């Protein structure tokens, strides 16, 4: 069961965080002592309290304001279901698989670097964010793998852990920095001269030395601890993600694509690097004690090794084989998985693979545009017009074929229709559109209309009574068309191109 | 402090511990049972959604594959059987049939490239894929929780509490066994 694993892993993380906390307290205490010349117990306590207060303030600020701030910095935009049904569906699937209490909010960052992150202090209040680059690069299975990893961070409460650890690291850095600076500008001379007068020179010097040592070594140790926690949580999120999807290959191939596209993110504050699925700056830096993420190649190899099952046991076995580490990620006895967890098959792979990279990049761009309330018109000649909300005219001429289109109104319904491509031409226009050079269509009586068509190309004609639009194929040879909307007969007149009036520009 | 009071304190302490354990165990059992109910309702929601999607799918596909009446009928019949099923085992049976019919339907669709390019159909297909996934994932979550409850009901010492308050073993929701056996029909005609 998930929570027993979470509990087992929580214990280890809590131990690491406790060590960091101890370091913070120690640093505060010793540095507080060093600020006064002779031994005074209250000085150490005061230093300790100051250090803890700094940590508390930082923690509160980052717990209650960080996600909003962060989403603001990255200029992430919230996606609703109608913007991108597939992304929404994938998140919903993972929420169901992990039995989370509610849907997280979904955001998209307009950035070509493929990446994703999760934020939020509790599973009830969380959000998942993906970049447009990721959407452009990944097929459904890969997207599912990435989302599963992020949902696992939410389930395992990694965001809370990492926030606590990050603020501890931050306050240790701040305290020791303040100390070193105060020594440089004023502390040193005052310290020694007064201590000499009171006769405690030796103990004072020793204390100074110890506190200096702590101020220099402390941050280094704290950093190593912090990155160790971060790497551990990444592995665990990979394991949980594989278990949620029952398809480790999805995440593996998504990570591989990210490895091949090592673009740095444009707006990513370094403090939140551990929240991303791959390190947003130094993608290939791995294996050092100062890396936030385990090496990508290693994560991919572990996931690829899990061919027999997708459970925690399988992940741990693969982890031991790949890293050669004797310390297991999750204590095996705590896993308590009754049955083995079989790997499932990929869903709809061949369909996704046929999409060209340019096509998928365009699709990702369209999602962003739809979120920014662009209007979309697909012209019958195949050109797709994308109009920004600032475009105020009510009709537009297709630059390729010269057809005139009404600018549709943008609302939630039209967005979904446009993105799935469903209602491109069946959507009713508010006024009948004069197609080509035909004027006859509008003058005729209601039951019989005439539409002029140039043979040999695609054309749109519209029933003037009910506004139903029809696509006329270049191979259409008929003389009449019965409108399925109102039953009116439309006579089709074939007019060769040179006889028609010039197209409107 | 006499030996009597000491013994009394120890016994009282043990009693308090036992009562505390009983309360915690009972609450976790109730919590699990509710979670299972919740997970089951999630499965029902998704199954219902699949039933609702099928008429749309058939309607969209009909125009393109007029000669596949047999396939349409199989899907429609499987759907109506599945929506009238009541008990857990009945539902599993009928839903397995429906999954089989749908996967056969998708195999047939492969022969109709125009249908596969239809945007409306693609949108329905995405919804259907997602619904199938959601069914699978909610079943997965449900079965995980059933396993956990059953372990608690059978294992010592929580089985005592479970017996006292009449907690029953929950039923797993199985689908895959039969669907794996059913090979998609491939016709060469």
Strand-helix topology:
The complex is a heterodimer of chains A (505) and B (189).
Chain A (H helix, E strand, L loop, with lengths): L1 H34 L5 H33 L3 E2 L6 H13 L7 E5 L6 E7 L2 E7 H6 L2 H16 L2 H41 L2 H45 L2 H13 L35 H10 L6 H12 L25 H5 L3 H15 L3 E4 L5 E4 L7 E3 L6 E3 L5 H9 L19 H4 L4 E6 L5 E4 L6 E4 L7 E3 L6 E6 L11
Parallel strand pairs in A: 2-4, 9-13
Antiparallel strand pairs in A: 1-2, 3-4, 5-6, 7-8, 10-11, 12-13
Helix pairs in contact in A: 1-2, 1-6, 1-7, 2-6, 3-5, 5-7, 5-8, 6-7, 7-8, 8-9, 9-10
Chain B lengths: L2 H60 L6 H16 L3 H22 L3 H5 L1 H36 L3 H7 L11 H6 L8
Helix pairs in contact in B: 1-2, 1-5, 2-3
Structural shape of chain A: elongated
Distance between the termini of chain B: 96 Å
Total count of helical runs of at least 4 residues of chain A: 14
Number of domains of chain B: 1
Total discrete domains of chain A: 3
Low-confidence stretches of chain B: 177-189
* Radius of gyration of chain B, taken over Cα atoms and rounded to an integer in Å: 25 Å
Largest sheet of chain B: none
Distance between the termini of chain A: 66 Å
Overall geometry of chain B: rod-shaped
- Main beta sheet of chain A, described? 4 strands, mixed
In short:
By secondary structure, chain A is α+β, with helices and mostly antiparallel strands.
Describe the structure.
The complex is a heterodimer of chains A (about 500) and B (about 190). Chain A is of the alpha+beta class and about 500 residues long. Chain A has three domains: about 1-340, no CATH class; about 355-420, no CATH class; about 440-500. Chain A contains 14 helices and 13 strands. In chain A, the strands form five sheets. Chain A has a four-stranded mixed sheet, with helices on both faces. The longest helix of chain A has about 45 residues, at about 200-245. The relative contact order of chain A is 0.09. By secondary structure, chain B is mostly helical. Chain B has one domain: LemA-like domain (de novo design (two linked rop proteins), Up-down Bundle), CATH 1.20.1440. Chain B has seven helices and no strands. In chain B, α1 runs antiparallel to α2. The termini of chain B are far apart. Mean pLDDT of chain B is about 80; it is low at about 175-189. Chains A and B meet through α3 of A and α1 and α5 of B.
């Amino acid at each position: 069961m998930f929570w027993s694993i979470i509990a087992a892993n929580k214990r280890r993380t809590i131990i690491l965080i406790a060590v960091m906390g101890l370091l913070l307290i120690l640093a505060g205490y010793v540095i507080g002592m060093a600020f006064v010349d002779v031994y005074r117990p209250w000085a150490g306590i005061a230093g300790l309290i100051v250090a803890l207060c700094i940590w508390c303030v930082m923690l509160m600020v980052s717990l209650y304001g960080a996600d909003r701030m962060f989403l603001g910095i990255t200029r992430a935009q919230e996606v609703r279901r109608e913007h991108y049904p597939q992304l929404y569906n994938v998140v919903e699937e993972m929420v169901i698989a992990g039995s989370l209490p509610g849907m997280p909010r979904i955001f998209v960052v307009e950035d070509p670097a493929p990446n994703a992150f999760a934020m939020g202090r509790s599973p009830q209040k969380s959000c998942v964010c993906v970049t447009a680059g990721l959407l452009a690069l990944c097929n459904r299975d890969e997207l599912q793998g990435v989302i599963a990893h992020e949902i696992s961070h939410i389930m395992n409460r990694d965001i809370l852990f990492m926030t606590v650890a990050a603020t501890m690291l931050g306050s240790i850095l701040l305290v020791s920095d303040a100390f070193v600076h105060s020594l440089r500008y004023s502390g040193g001379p005052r310290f020694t001269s007064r201590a000499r007068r009171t006769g405690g020179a030796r103990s004072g010097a020793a204390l100074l030395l110890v506190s200096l040592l702590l101020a220099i070594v402390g941050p280094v140790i704290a950093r190593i601890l912090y990155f160790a926690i971060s790497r551990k949580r990444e592995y665990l999120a990979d394991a949980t993600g594989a278990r949620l999807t029952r398809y480790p290959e999805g995440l593996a191939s998504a990570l591989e694509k990210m490895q091949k596209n090592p673009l740095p993110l444009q707006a990513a504050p370094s403090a939140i690097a551990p929240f991303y699925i791959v390190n947003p700056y130094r993608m290939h830096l791995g294996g050092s004690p100062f890396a936030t993420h385990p090496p990508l190649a290693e994560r991919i190899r572990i996931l690829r090794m899990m061919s027999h099952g997708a459970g925690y046991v399988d992940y741990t076995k693969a982890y031991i084989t790949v890293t050669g580490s004797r310390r297991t990620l999750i204590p095996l006895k705590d896993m308590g998985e009754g049955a083995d967890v079989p790997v499932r098959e990929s869903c709809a792979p061949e369909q996704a693979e046929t999409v060209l990279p340019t096509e998928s990049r365009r699709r990702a761009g369209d999602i962003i545009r739809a979120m920014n309330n662009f209007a979309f018109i697909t012209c019958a000649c195949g050109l797709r017009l994308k109009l920004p909300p600032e475009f105020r005219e009510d009709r537009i001429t297709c630059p390729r074929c010269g057809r005139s289109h009404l600018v549709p109104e943008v609302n939630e319904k039209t967005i979904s229709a446009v993105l799935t491509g469903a209602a491109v031409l069946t959507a009713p226009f508010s006024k009948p559109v004069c197609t080509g050079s035909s004027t006859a269509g509008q003058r005729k009586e209601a039951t019989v209309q005439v539409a002029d068509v140039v043979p040999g190309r695609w054309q749109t004609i519209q029933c003037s009574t009910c506004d139903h639009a029809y696509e006329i194929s270049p191979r259409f040879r008929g003389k009449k068309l019965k409108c399925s909307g109102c039953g009116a007969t439309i006579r089709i007149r074939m007019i060769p191109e040179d006889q028609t009036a010039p197209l409107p520009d | 402090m006499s030996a009597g009071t000491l013994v009394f304190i120890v016994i009282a302490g043990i009693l308090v511990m036992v009562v505390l354990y009983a309360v915690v165990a009972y609450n976790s059992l109730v919590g699990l049972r509710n979670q299972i109910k919740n997970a089951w309702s999630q499965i029902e929601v998704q199954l219902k959604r699949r039933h609702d999607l099928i008429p749309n799918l058939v309607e969209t596909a009909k125009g393109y594959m007029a000669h596949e009446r047999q396939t349409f009928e199989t899907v429609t019949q499987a759907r109506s059987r599945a929506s009238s099923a009541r008990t857990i085992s009945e539902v599993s049976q009928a839903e397995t049939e429906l999954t089989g019919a749908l996967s056969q339907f998708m195999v047939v669709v492969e022969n109709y490239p125009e249908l596969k390019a239809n945007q409306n159909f693609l949108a329905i297909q995405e919804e259907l894929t997602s619904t199938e996934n959601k069914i699978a994932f909610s079943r997965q979550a449900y079965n995980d929780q059933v396993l956990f409850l059953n372990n608690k009901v059978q294992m010592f010492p929580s089985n005592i509490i479970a017996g006292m308050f009449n907690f029953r073993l929950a039923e797993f929701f199985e689908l895959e066994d039969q669907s794996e056996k059913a090979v998609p029909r491939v016709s060469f005609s």
